[in-house]
Amino acid sequence: MALALVTGGSGFIGQHLVGALTARGDDVRVLDVAELPPASAPAEYVQGSVVDAAIVEEAMRGTDCVYHLAGIAHLWHRDKQAFDRINRGGTETVLKAASRAGVRRVVHCSTESILLPKRRSTGSAIDEASDPRLDEMPGPYTRSKLLAEHAARAAAREGHDVIVVNPTVPIGPGDHNNTPPAAMLALFLTGNQKFFLDCELNLVDVRDVADGIVLAGLQGRTGERYILGGENLSLQALMAILARKSGRSMPQRTVPALLALATGVVAGWWSDYVTRAPPVATLEGVVLALRSAPFDCAKARNELGYTPRPVDEALTAVVEQFKRNVADRK
């Protein structure tokens, strides 16, 4: 029976990973600034941030494998420096502590958004060979996540057993943090959205992401990157599914790219300097949507035995949760 440390174990993917690890018989310790959700699987809990070296070293004691998920998963933050401090700096702190503690393996959770190049061959799917430069990242979130992944892969080149996973767009039950995918789906389900920016998304059930991370910890090759994806869908096709499941109308008109970019600039400025609350759209998010592409997760399927289910079940869970939230507010 191994002791696994999950940083960010209170988050959306993290809570499902804790459940997947405990289901296979592992003892689990969670390091997070937020408390564990009430419905989480039983785990030892250490409250603290991954930028606090002393807390990280304390949480690391006796662990066999570290799953590093902690970070800012949103595209907007009041403190723009927090992206780099937590996503990059926190990753470096975790990697150094793991090395000192003699941890056998580290699985670093990155993101698919850093794999989207500024320009690509039309119709080609993105796979693990994609390697955009730092100056191609469209904002502070993606820059911080790319630098964090660089740190993880550098540690592997230095001889440490580190593996990288890149989940695509996770959806499903238990998204109490209202991550960007959940916020997007809720926006369409309200029925108040009149326009949409058509793009291509790779949606994946969050439970499959958790299973894929476990598989990476068990069978992944040191220094390798694995895309944990599901189904490629256009946003228009996704909205048709949401309309069928919810009975709600969806927007019918698309937004021109230039107008979407302008909206991202204005909404971001308004949030930064006026409301200090998350915007409806960010420039970084719009640019990522305009760069969107299908993803290929064949490597994870072939090397890890990763078998994601159709996303229909996850979308049903999202719609049902939305309906419950609406009923609770009445």
Largest sheet: 7 strands, parallel
Gyration radius, rounded: 19 Å
Q: Please tally the helical runs, counting DSSP H or I stretches of 4 or more residues.
A: 11
Percent of residues in helices comes to 40-55%
Alpha-carbon distance between the termini? 47 Å
> Total number of β-strand segments?
12
Any overview of this molecule?
With 330 residues, the protein is of the alpha/beta class. It has a domain of 209 residues: Rossmann fold. Helices cover 45% and strands 15% of the residues. It is built from 11 helices and 12 strands. A 7-stranded parallel sheet has the order 3-2-1-4-5-6-10, with helices on both faces. A 3-stranded mixed sheet has the order 7-9-11. α7 packs across α11. The model has no long low-confidence stretch (mean pLDDT 93).
Features:
alpha/beta; 15% strand; Rossmann fold; 7-stranded parallel β-sheet; 330 residues; 12 strands
Give the SSE map.
Elements: E1 3-7, H1 12-23, E2 27-32, E3 44-47, H2 53-60, E4 65-68, H3 81-101, E5 105-109, H4 140-157, E6 162-167, E7 169-171, H5 180-189, E8 195-196, E9 200-205, H6 206-219, E10 225-228, E11 231-234, H7 235-246, E12 253-254, H8 257-275, H9 283-290, H10 298-304, H11 312-329
Parallel strand pairs: 1-2, 1-4, 2-3, 4-5, 5-6, 6-10, 7-9, 8-12
Antiparallel strand pairs: 9-11
Concise description?
With 330 residues, this protein is an alpha/beta fold.
